[in-house]
Design a protein that fits this description.
With about 525 residues, the chain is of the alpha+beta class. It has one domain: Cytochrome P450 (Cytochrome p450). Helix content is about 55%, strand content about 10%. The chain contains 20 helices and 10 strands. The strands form 3 sheets. A 4-stranded mixed beta sheet has the order 1-2-7-4. Strands 3, 8, 9 and 10 form a 4-stranded antiparallel beta sheet that branches. Helix 5 packs antiparallel against helix 9, helix 8 packs antiparallel against helix 13 and helix 11 packs across helix 13. It is globular.
Length: about 525
């Protein structure tokens, strides 16, 4: 009898929940919500194109910016009230990232998932812990010396490792996975800048590196935690099975590598970020402990590697499919080098572009920004709602719920970017006189580098690296997609290409007084 009562109460409770869920879900703006399963069928059916699916649903909510918010009904998955708010309204984004910044932290779900890898580093912390690191890092990232150090690391990697690989591929007419090469390049550069130790993963043999492999494995296993309820991955961690076992083994290698780097920098300080943080003190006047320094360094490696390599991959693909943009980029580089290196074009390709030359490439920066508008390295960003709030467009977000602002969708809204929002048009970033790079007057319509108090500190370094790589590659080579290769998005927190970017590399010849371009195949 008692068992029957419990069973009846359970069924009644579940039925009440499902009735309540469906009654509310059917009135929500967003994808169709079905009884019991809500929006899950649509999400599952579009799992290979989630970002475009989200953009389509946001577009359907209304023609004006006011209505670019939708609710996904995800029973038993979304944390609070089973509804997940998604927006691409710039005013909502400003509200989340600046106006009510303190009400939208990373939150416990994100922090718990990333804690083993990133600890309380700057990209996985909130409150005072974040403020201390932010202030300390801000002082370093604004220095010219750090930008010059970045330029040296980038040029060294390009000249001695990237150029030879591309030259050999051109000579042998053999395809390369450009995304993999760029990932290795940016990894070597950020490791060098962060703790002065070059792992040399970008070499002709493309060697495996224990730290790089362990870091990749740890990142992948950590991301998997976000796909499941917290109790599931904690259960696997307690038993030491599956992805949690791999994570533990990978972290052991990563931690050992980082401790060696910290010891080396304590004995012989250099001009890297780790050496600079070794000199800093916390609010109590104490030097940061080695374990905390390790997390700080890993946070910078994670942020500086994937984002730039992914952006460059999409950039090169877009340039391949837009020859008129490529020609303008080459002509701009030629104009700059003619002023700095003279008319002898052989001198143009003897050395990578230096810091001051890269700084003059306005149209190239516009093309990179246009790439990030259409293909942001981080397509969606997640926030936790600390207390009940109302967004500027009137959407109610309850405390304890999750909210996503879709950076990918912002760039595809006609109401925000105009009728040509789907076109790759770098000119939208250039002043009317054609001389200056201009960011949008409405700042929160472009948040590829975040915005508000969490604006990316490495934004200038990222542009420096991307411009240096793009300029030196395009000046020497023309790229063409391997026939039959499919360029598709990989569904992850970072917008990788699912199948890589397989290209043929061709030598480029610069001819004519105006730097016009011809290519030899």
């Amino acid at each position: 009898m008692e068992t029957f009562v419990f069973f009846f109460v359970g069924i009644a409770t579940l039925s009440a929940y499902l009735f309540w869920f469906y009654f509310l879900a059917r009135n929500l703006s967003g994808p169709k919500a079905w009884p019991i399963v809500g929006s899950l069928p649509g999400l599952i059916a579009n799992r290979s194109r989630v970002h475009d699916w989200i953009a389509e649903n946001l577009r359907r909510t209304g023609g004006s910016v006011t209505y670019q918010t939708c609710i996904l009904a995800l029973p038993f998955i979304a944390r609070k009230q089973s509804f997940y708010t998604v927006t691409c309204n710039p005013k909502n984004i400003e509200h989340i990232l600046r106006t009510r910044f303190d009400n939208y932290p990373k939150g416990p779900t994100w922090q718990a998932a990333f804690h083993d890898l990133l600890g309380q580093g700057i990209f996985n912390s909130d409150g005072d812990t974040w403020v201390i690191q932010r202030k300390t890092a801000a002082l370093e990232f604004t220095t010219r010396s750090l930008r010059q150090a970045m330029a040296r690391w980038v040029n060294r990697t390009i000249k001695f490792r990237f150029w030879p690989i591309l030259a050999e591929a051109a000579m042998n007419h053999s395809p390369v996975d450009l995304q993999e090469l760029l990932l290795r390049l940016t990894f070597d550069n950020i490791c060098g800048l962060t703790f002065g130790k070059d792992p040399e993963t970008l070499s002709p043999e493309l060697p495996d590196n224990p730290f790089a492999l362990a870091f990749d494995s740890a990142t992948e296993s950590t991301l998997q935690r976000l796909l499941y309820p917290g109790f599931f991955w904690r259960f696997k961690k307690a038993l030491g099975i599956g992805s949690e076992r791999r994570l533990k083994e990978s972290l052991r290698i990563v931690e050992s590598y980082m401790m060696d780097a910290i010891i080396a920098r304590k004995e012989a300080p250099s001009d890297d970020l780790l050496s600079r943080f070794l000199k800093k003190k916390d609010i109590n006047g104490n030097f940061f402990p080695s374990s905390f320094l390790s997390f700080i360094a890993l946070n910078f490696v994670l942020a500086g590697r994937d984002t730039s390599s992914v952006a460059l991959s999409w950039f090169f693909w877009l340039v391949m499919t837009h020859p008129q943009v490529e020609e303008k980029i080459i002509n701009e580089i030629s104009t700059v080098l003619k002023k700095t290196r003279g008319d002898d074009r052989k001198k143009w390709v003897e050395e990578p572009l230096v810091f001051d030359e890269v700084d003059q490439l306005v149209y190239l920066k516009a093309a990179l920004s246009e790439t990030l508008r259409l293909y942001p390295s981080v397509p969606e960003d997640f926030k936790y709602v600390l207390s009940d709030d109302i967004l500027p467009d009137g959407t109610v977000v309850p405390a304890g719920s999750l909210i996503t602002y879709s950076i990918y969708s912002v760039g595809r809204m006609e109401a925000i970017w105009g009728d040509d929002c789907s076109e790759f048009r770098p000119e939208r970033w250039i002043s009317q006189d054609g001389e200056r790079f201009e960011t949008p007057k409405e700042a929160y319509k472009y948040v590829a580098f975040n915005a508000g108090p969490r604006t990316c500190l490495g934004k200038d370094l990222a542009y420096l690296q991307m411009k240096s790589v793009a300029a030196t590659v395009l000046l020497r080579h023309r790229l063409s997609l391997v026939p039959g290769h499919r360029v598709e998005q990989k569904m992850s927190l970072t917008l990788f290409m699912k199948n890589g970017l397989r290209v043929y590399v061709h030598e480029r010849n610069l001819e004519g007084d105006n730097g016009s371009v011809t290519c030899s195949n």
